Amino acid sequence: MLDQIHLLAAVTVLGVLEQAYFFLQVIYARRLFGISPPKTSGPPEFERIFRAQVNSSEYFPIFLALLWQAGLFFHQGLAATLGLLYLYARYCYFKGYKASSSERLTPIYLGSGVLWILIAASALGILRFFFSHYMGLNIL
Fold first, then answer.
1. Fewer CB atoms < 10 Å away: N or C end of the chain?
2. What's the main place this protein lives (predicted)?
């Protein structure tokens, strides 16, 4: 069974490490700009870093659920590849947002597109399972 999920597990660990990196960037920015928790406002440079981290954290559970569903029900290799592309888009989003709010747009569109593909792969995989398991039909 592990050979059917090892790529998904690796992408999950990379995603967790990426989230930790984003979190550390907020800590460094707090120190740099002298902003103590629980404050979330300050110079625009700090607020962009903070928002990039929060936005990335908000999407992370959605990403994980879709990654695993697409990997388990559709194809592990495709899901893992899309997962790596999503993590790269999120990294570019974070770096872009850190520099300027307008530089976050292209990476967020890329990341959203990847999520939509993961949704489609998940839905097709689950639909295929239902047809196969309950109706004995192989639709793919």
1. N
2. endoplasmic reticulum
Give, for all 140 residues of the chain, the pLDDT tens digit. 788 899 999 999 999 999 999 999 999 999 999 999 999 999 999 999 999 999 999 999 999 999 999 999 999 999 999 999 999 999 999 999 999 999 999 999 999 999 999 999 999 999 999 999 999 888 76
Per the residue annotation, which of 30, 48, 90, 104 is the catalytic one? 104
Which two tokens mark 78?
Answer: 């495709």
Instruction: Report if residue 140 sits inside a domain.
Output: no
Q: In Å, how far are 78, 113, 120, 128 from 139, measured between CA atoms?
A: 19, 25, 15, 6
DSSP character for 3? Answer: G
The CA-atom distances, in angstroms, between 86 and each of 14, 35, 62, 82, 119 are 11, 30, 12, 6, 13
Give me the amino acid identity at 2: L
Global confidence as pTM: 0.95
104 belongs to the catalytic site: yes
The domain tally of the chain equals 1
In the annotation, is 90 catalytic?
no
For residue 84, what are the domain limits? 2-135
